[in-house]
Every structure is written in structure tokens, then in C-alpha cells.
Design goal:
Layout: E1 9-14, H1 20-31, E2 34-36, H2 38-48, H3 52-59, H4 66-77, H5 80-85, E3 87-90, H6 96-103, E4 111-116, H7 119-128, E5 130-132, E6 138-139, E7 154-156, H8 162-185, E8 190-194, H9 199-249, E9 259-260, H10 281-287, H11 294-299, E10 309-314, E11 317-323, H12 324-330, E12 339-343, E13 351-354, E14 359-362, E15 370-374, H13 381-403, E16 423-427, E17 440-443, E18 454-465, E19 468-476, E20 487-488, E21 491-494, H14 501-513, H15 517-523, E22 524-536, E23 539-551, E24 565-572, H16 573-582, H17 589-601, H18 612-618
Parallel strand pairs: 1-3, 1-4, 2-3, 4-8, 9-16, 10-15, 18-23
Antiparallel strand pairs: 5-6, 5-7, 10-11, 12-15, 13-14, 16-17, 18-19, 18-21, 19-20, 19-24, 22-23
Helix pairs in contact: 1-9, 4-6, 6-8, 7-8, 9-13, 16-17
């Protein structure tokens, strides 16, 4: 589950009952692309009551305008997983107007696949189909029998008569022809695939077509990238000179200010997943045999050598940490107006254990004896922000110069241009309240490079059955850029600017699990924080997660409408704890921490467990208030 290549942008069309519901998830998994359907997006919004305009339009019997439909779809396609990994539009666009809107800008699809099936087969399927009222999944007694555990939720389509279905098929044929003509005029490859046969045969034909399109695109893309790389190699030294020059005048130079941080997923490197893409669960378990027990849950999110990091100061307050290699870059010519490197004024004894001598040794030559002070001559938040932004620009130019070299060796590109988000995150003193004024604001892509803490929230969804507690877990979609296919809480996300932790948790639960607002208002409870710190390639990542518990009615099933979750599953709390002990590779690292915290608080780990005390401490030992005097593990 490590690494990925950008996926294609696919439109999957077809008449009612043509097999889109079966082929769409297969193609999405095959290409690691985000599966997006307008119907799923609308169902999620309606249940979460997050879009009053959409609800009013649908309840009045009106269809959404092409513009409104495109706005909803576009919002989903602009998320990180779809932008970086590609997407599959399931059954959209439905009109030529929507197709024209999709072709505008960067959302032009790479390929259009049309599933075809004789009308008599489509009529036979439509006449017997039913729908899961909780998830929207469609079943048929003969062609796609529903599982026993969902039968009580099924809603039968009593309005489907043969005459009605035939009229819908005729209308679809007319609209689909107009849509295909629009795509063909725009030069988008289109293929009609026969699906009156085994879905596996249809799937193979679809993949062959998409692979051919991708192969031709890769050739063109490779030529463009080679040309751009040659240009970057020539321009990189000049960009670095210009960026360094601007550091001197940054305090007084007026420039457009990026937007505040919007939350969402983090841009920095994450703790490595335990399984690789090409290995089975059994192979992964054997390779990670030693990584068992509850301490392993905490240990893999808290790995770094304190001697390699120096504190970062602003106005005498520590705001983060900087790695030794970056500290040396900050000492470079032309950067003194933005950063000063000098002795560390904070307590900084770093205790390290010598395994051979079995004793502590004190080293006074490590970088923790130094400190980097940002914007030392600036006098306001705005000035400090401009100065640090100029410094970040210089690091971006330095990264470009490094990446243009054929051999980078062990040098790190600390702020690659590809990571820039053009969003600013507030920077406060370590341990300062979230509602306190920031000392400055910094580009989100540089947060890890300067060791600035980031914040987020996770929501534990649970329910009770026959006196037992069951946990709702999300299996992350294979299209996710980080930790695809691993277990997660029902909702989680970064903290946007000017948003409270509680409101952020409610928003994430509504968007990711379609939880109705009245349940969130009545049942969501704050449950403390989990914190951790680990070394990433570009710096030190310090994170604090606000944890919330949400009790759900027994008959409420979380549904995901945006394609970021492949499935929600209900697991007995004791079984979830056992999976932490023996199958840690199945979990997203920080989600395993949050599940462990839930188990501790709810008494599923007894106090006489050998790991009880150490785990209780380590779940919060690396808080955002931890300063430079630390213990090296």
C-alpha cells in the first residue's frame, strides 16, 4: 500500500440497469481512482441536511439545473485524492449541457466508457430491483440477491412498470447520444462496450481501452515533462537568486496573502503503512511479526531522534523544530533577514542511552544546542508572515534546484513546489490556546519542515446491541493518496482556520458519514486529545487530534457519498482491540491511536494489562506543548 501513480479521468455511462453499479467499483479499484456519482453525493447531502437548496429543489419535484449539478460534482473532483489520483464519474454527465461544463477547464476527461445491454435485459432487471434505504445499493432477487442482513432495509421500486421503464430507456438513449456527440467533438476517446455477458469480460475490455488511452497520454506527458525539466534546470539558479534577494525586502513588500488553511488532509509525509501494494495480508503479517501488542500502536507514530532537531523560535517563544540539514540551509547567504541561527536559550539537554555502556550519555555537540529564530527583525504578525513567506519561497527555489540535479544524494527538497497549497496555517507558541492570537502564519506545505504542530479531529462512531458496544469503522477507499484500504474512524479531518474543534467534528461527520445534524447536536461528546510526533523526510511532524465519541441509533448506518470510503463496517469493541494487538497492519496509524484511546477510556484494556501504564502515558506524551528538552527513545 505504498506509492501510487496518478490515475486516469474516466466517465462511465450507460442506460438504466446496464451494469454501472457493478463495473464502476471494479474500475475504480483497478485504477485507484476516486469513484464519484451525483446520486451518491445528493443522498449524502440530503441525509446530513447539509444543503438546504438541494433538498428544497428535490422535494419540489424539480431537477437540478446543469450548473447546480456540475457545482456539486466539481467540488468533489477538486479534492486531493481526485486531483492527484484521477477519478471515475459514475453516470455523469447526463445531459449535453453538463458535458460541456465538464469539458471546461482542467476537468476534461481522458476517456468515456459506455456500457450497453439489450433493452429486454435492462427491462427484466429494472422490474424486480430494490434499494437499500441506508446505503443506496441496488439489488435484484435473481441477478443480484441482497445479503440477509440488509433485507429489512430494502425498498422496492413499485413505480417501475414495463411501459415506464421503456420510456426511460428511450429518453436515456436520446440524452446519451447528445452527450457522446459532445465528447467526440471535443476529441475525447469514446468506446461502447457490450455488457450482455460476463462482467469480467466486460471489465477486461474496459481496461484494455483505458490502458490504450493511458499509454498514448503517457508518451505525450513524458515529452512535455522532459521539455519542462530542461527549462527548470536552466531557470532554477536564477529563481533561487531572485527568491533570496526578495528575503531582504520582504518585511515592507506588499504581496497578495494566501487564503487561510481549509483543513482537509495533511500535505506532509505520513507514517509508513506496514503493508506493500504487491503483498498479501499473510505476507504482511509475517514480515511485521515483531510489531505486535498495544505498545506497537503508539511506538510507530512516535519515532524520532531529538538530537537531529533544533527548536524554532518566534518572539522568544518556541513554535516548532527544524532538522539539522535544514538548519544548515538557513545559515546560507542572503537569509539573515528572515532567520537567525544561534545558541538555544531553552533547556536543551538531550539524554541518549548508549546501548554498549548501558548508561546515559550527554552530547553537547548536537543541533538541539542551537536554535533558529524566524523573522527576528519584524514587529507585527503581518510583517513576520511576509518575511517567513519569502523564506519559504527561497526554500521552494532551493528545492527546484535540487530536484533538477540528476543525483540528489541524501539532500532533501524541504518545500517542493508540487506540495504548495497556497494556504496559511496559524503559528502559535507551543502549548498556547487555539483561540490565542498567532505569532505569524505559514504556508501549509512548510509546516512539517519547521516542525509546527497541526491539529485535527477524529470521531468514534459506536452503537449498542444487546448490552455490547460496537464500533463503526471506515475502510478507506483505494483511491486515497494515503493509507488506501486501511481502517479509519467514521470521520476525521484537519482543523480549518477560524473553526472550532466541535464544529469541525460535526462538519466532518456530516460530510464523510452523512450523519444527520440532530444526532450530531444531541450525541456528539468531546473525549479529550491524542498527540504524537514522528520524523518525516522533510522534518518533524507534531500532531494533536481532538477525539469525539458519537453514539448512533442501532438502525442508523453511516453512508459515504463522496467515494472516499469503500465501506463502513460494524465491529464489536473487543474485536477491534484484538485487531490492534494482532493485526495492526490493517489500521491507519493515527486511527489506531484513536481506537486505542477509546478502548482505554471505555475499560476494554484492564488496568493489570502489562502495557496499561506505558500506553496511558504515551498516547499524550508528545503533546503540542512539548518543548526542546526531551527523551530520546
Amino acid at each position: 500500500r505504498l506509492g501510487r501513480a496518478a490515475g486516469p479521468k474516466i466517465v462511465l455511462l450507460g442506460k438504466p440497469a446496464s451494469g454501472k453499479g457493478t463495473l464502476a467499483p471494479m474500475l475504480s479499484c483497478a485504477y485507484r481512482s476516486a469513484r464519484v456519482g451525483l446520486g451518491s453525493l445528493l443522498r449524502a447531502r440530503l441525509r446530513a441536511e447539509s444543503d438546504g437548496q438541494v433538498r428544497a429543489a428535490l422535494q419540489s419535484g424539480k431537477l437540478l439545473s446543469d450548473e447546480d449539478a456540475m457545482d456539486i460534482v466539481q467540488e468533489r473532483l477538486e479534492r486531493e485524492d481526485a486531483v492527484e489520483g484521477g477519478w471515475l464519474l459514475d453516470g455523469f454527465p447526463r445531459t449535453a449541457g453538463q458535458a460541456r461544463l465538464l469539458l471546461e477547464g482542467p476537468l476534461k476527461p481522458d476517456a468515456v466508457v459506455v456500457l450497453d445491454r439489450p433493452d429486454d435485459l435492462a427491462v427484466a432487471f429494472c422490474l424486480g430491483r430494490c434499494e437499500d434505504s441506508a446505503t443506496g445499493a441496488v439489488y435484484h432477487p435473481r441477478f443480484a440477491p441482497p445479503p440477509d442482513d440488509v433485507r429489512h432495509r430494502l425498498v422496492w421500486r413499485t413505480d417501475d412498470t414495463e411501459e415506464v421503464v421503456k420510456k426511460r430507456l428511450a429518453k436515456h438513449a436520446q440524452e446519451c447520444n447528445a452527450v457522446l456527440a459532445t465528447f467526440e467533438e471535443a476529441g475525447v476517446p469514446v468506446k461502447v462496450v457490450d455488457n450482455a455477458r460476463s462482467e469480467l469480460e466486460t471489465f477486461a475490455d474496459c481496461c484494455s481501452f483505458v490502458d490504450e488511452v493511458e499509454a498514448s497520454m503517457r508518451g505525450l506527458k513524458a515529452r512535455r515533462e522532459r521539455k519542462q525539466k530542461r527549462r527548470d534546470k536552466l531557470a532554477a539558479p536564477w529563481r533561487l537568486m531572485e527568491a533570496t534577494r526578495r528575503v531582504e525586502t520582504a518585511a515592507v513588500e506588499q504581496r497578495p496573502e494566501p487564503k487561510p488553511a481549509s483543513g482537509g488532509s495533511a500535505t506532509e509525509e505520513d507514517v509508513e503503512a506496514l503493508c506493500y501494494v504487491d503483498e498479501t495480508a499473510e505476507q504482511c503479517a509475517a514480515r511485521n511479526e515483531e510489531l505486535r501488542g498495544l505498545r506497537a500502536v503508539v511506538r510507530r507514530c512516535n519515532t524520532y531522534d531529538p538530537a537531529r532537531f533544533a527548536p524554532v523560535l518566534v518572539e522568544g517563544e518556541q513554535v516548532g523544530f527544524v532538522a539539522a540539514q535544514l538548519l544548515n540551509k538557513l545559515r546560507g547567504p542572503g537569509l539573515s533577514a528572515a532567520v537567525e541561527v544561534g545558541p538555544n536559550p531553552l533547556p536543551h539537554v538531550v539524554r541518549r542511552r548508549d546501548d554498549e555502556l548501558d548508561e546515559e550519555v550527554i552530547e553537547d555537540d548536537d543541533v538541539s544546542a542551537l536554535a533558529a529564530t524566524l523573522a527576528p527583525h519584524a514587529h507585527s504578525v503581518a510583517e513576520r508572515t511576509r518575511v517567513v513567506q519569502a523564506l519559504v519561497d527561497a526554500l521552494v527555489a532551493d528545492s527546484e534546484l535540487l530536484l533538477a540535479r540528476p543525483d540528489q544524494g541524501t539532500e532533501v527538497a524541504f518545500v517542493p513546489r508540487s506540495k504548495l497549497r497556497d494556504e496559511l496555517q496559524d503559528v502559535r507558541a507551543l502549548g498556547a490556546p487555539l483561540n490565542s492570537p498567532p505569532l505569524l502564519r505559514i504556508e501549509r506545505a512548510a509546516v512539517v519542515s519547521f516542525g509546527v504542530p497541526s491539529y485535527g479531529c477524529h470521531v468514534n462512531g459506536f452503537t449498542r446491541k444487546n448490552g455490547d458496544v460496537y464500533i463503526w469503522l471506515a475502510k478507506r477507499a483505494l483511491s486515497k493518496p494515503t493509507y488506501p484500504g486501511l481502517l479509519d474512524q467514521i470521520a476525521a479531518g484537519g482543523l480549518p482556520a477560524k473553526t472550532s474543534l466541535l464544529e469541525n467534528a460535526k462538519r466532518e461527520a456530516a460530510e464523510e458519514a452523512s450523519i444527520p445534524r440532530d444526532i450530531l447536536d444531541g450525541n456528539l461528546r468531546a473525549a479529550g486529545c491524542v498527540s504524537y510526533r514522528y520524523a518525516a523526510r522533510r522534518g518533524l511532524s507534531t500532531k494533536t487530534l481532538a477525539v469525539f465519541d458519537l453514539e448512533l441509533p442501532e438502525d442508523l448506518v453511516p453512508i459515504n457519498g463522496d467515494g472516499e470510503v469503500d465501506a463502513f463496517m460494524l465491529m464489536k469493541a473487543e474485536d477491534a482491540v484484538e485487531s490492534l494487538r494482532s493485526r495492526l497492519y490493517e489500521w491507519k496509524p493515527n486511527s489506531a491511536l484513536v481506537m486505542l484511546d477509546f478502548a482505554m477510556r471505555w475499560g476494554y484494556i484492564p488496568p493489570d494489562d502489562p502495557d496499561y501504564i506505558s500506553v496511558s502515558h504515551d498516547l499524550r506524551s508528545y503533546s503540542a506543548s512539548s518543548r526542546s528538552s526531551v527523551w530520546s527513545k
